[in-house]
Amino acid sequence: MIEIYEYKAFKPKLRPGYVRADLEIYGIDTFRQSYSGLIYFNTPRPDPKNLNPDDPACAGQFAIFGHLECTGDDGHCHMRAPQRFDTRRSSPLTPAFKRVEVTEGLRRALDDTDELAITIVVADELGSKAAEEGSDYKTPLLKCKGLQLVTFA
Amino acid sequence: MAGSMRYRLRVDLPDSQEMIDFAVAMRRIQGISDNRGYNIIAGVHGAPFWYCWHHQFSRRSDNRAQLFLPWHRAYLYYLDLALNDFVEEGGVAQPWWDWTAIREVPEGYEATDIGGEESPLRRYRMNIDLPTGDIRRFTRRRPGQNPAARLPTETEVATALNDNDWSSFSDRVQNMHDHVHGWVGGDMGDTTTAAYDPVFYAHHAMVDRIWYLWQIRNGINTITGSLLDIVLDPFAMTVRDVLDTRALGYEYADTAEQIPPVDPVPVG
């Protein structure tokens, strides 16, 4: 399965002289199959039939180690509500956080424009074989609360 | 593997003595079904016990409880002890798969035979009782089936090693780790069953080695202070307990060759 997420172009509020830029992805639902993501800035939509993880136009990459199916009784994979005085560890399905360093990609993308259009392509191990494997696989792959672009001086 | 330390060495070819010795120990614990054996130890990570730490938050820490590296270090240490409970002399050490150099599942983990017997490293027959249906089958791999996935490169490892901020370093390593799980695919691509595949431990030894190398550069205590006293369930260890691999009895070496003793030559 391959999905493309195209975010609306915006003008990032950057100060000159940043030494590092991270694209943060937060609130990621990992209750699905593992997948990999390629991040593009200001590039034409990548051809999903010719994805190349070594594509030099790619600004960054990330991967999610997922958990496809619940293996417990009913409710096993529902996140429990926190209690007072609760020292137990958080649920393994607590939404994940990823930060991907995109410093060079961001500089390249904003070399001759002040607008940034983010495209993220994600794919699981099945690729075009998804249909053969049945419908147990979850979609969308990249289910998250949002992105954040952060720079550091 | 004599001496005070156990040296974890890179994954070698299936006919190397280190791999044969390691396979003997793995075969032994895979043949044990109680809590000394591989099936239970593998079940600590995903199904049915679910103790593994990945990209998680915790109310006990303001730092997203980045216990990914410490927890897996304790886990591999626990496997080390289990393996060596069944080795009479010298001991064995887990090999590490340098996926920046070996760009496929290593031959030592793909060969059908090691030391003239069926390899315990190619696959493992899982035996998991679950409410949703028991899993009783061999582990499977589907390497390279994700068109967006690839194995991390030497450059990415170097970038991580040059990042002297613990939190950022940990995120970088975890991302490389996630890539490898996705690239190997099959059972390795699902938290539920990943640790039943023997190559899981060679992958995690590489991850642990990167942390070890980072600690040599940055010091063993350069970790977020709020994490230090968190207990790494179900192991009776805190984060502080796993910071120094030498205190756990192992290091990562490039080579370690046994040189047999000789009798002195009388000269006087």
Summed up, the helix count of chain A is 1
Euclidean distance between termini CA atoms of chain B: 35 Å
Number of helices of chain B: 7
CATH superfamily of chain B: Di-copper center containing domain from catechol oxidase
Query: What would you report as the Rg of chain A, rounded to the nearest angstrom?
Result: 18 Å
The average pLDDT score of chain A comes to 88
How much is the average pLDDT of chain B? Answer: 92
Low-confidence stretches of chain B: none
CATH fold description of chain A:
Hemocyanin, Chain: A, domain 2
Query: If strands are numbered along the chain, what order do they take across the biggest sheet of chain B?
Result: 1-4
Biggest beta sheet summary of chain B: 2 strands, parallel
Order of helices and strands of chain A: EEEEEHEE
Helical residue percent of chain A? under 10%
Largest contact between chains: A-B, 49 and 45 residues
Q: Strand portion of chain A, in percent?
A: 25-35%
Explain what you see.
The complex is a heterodimer of chains A (153) and B (268). Chain A is 5% helix and 31% strand. Chain A is mainly beta and 153 residues long. Chain A has one domain: Hemocyanin, Chain: A, domain 2 (Sandwich). Chain A has a 4-stranded antiparallel beta sheet. Chain A has a 3-stranded antiparallel beta sheet with strand order 5-2-7, covered by helices on one side. Chain B has 268 residues and is mainly alpha-helical. Chain B is globular and about 70 Å long. Chain B starts with 5 loop residues before the first strand and ends in a 16-residue tail after the last strand. At the A-B interface, β3, β4, β5 and β6 of A face α6 of B.
What are the SSEs and their pairings?
The complex is a heterodimer of chains A (153) and B (268).
Chain A: E1 2-6, E2 20-28, E3 35-41, E4 58-64, E5 96-101, H1 103-109, E6 118-124, E7 146-152
Antiparallel strand pairs in A: 1-6, 2-5, 2-7, 3-4, 3-6
Chain B: E1 6-8, H1 17-30, H2 38-45, H3 68-84, H4 107-110, E2 113-114, E3 117-118, H5 154-161, H6 166-184, H7 199-218, E4 250-252
Parallel strand pairs in B: 1-4
Antiparallel strand pairs in B: 2-3
Helix pairs in contact in B: 3-7, 5-6, 6-7
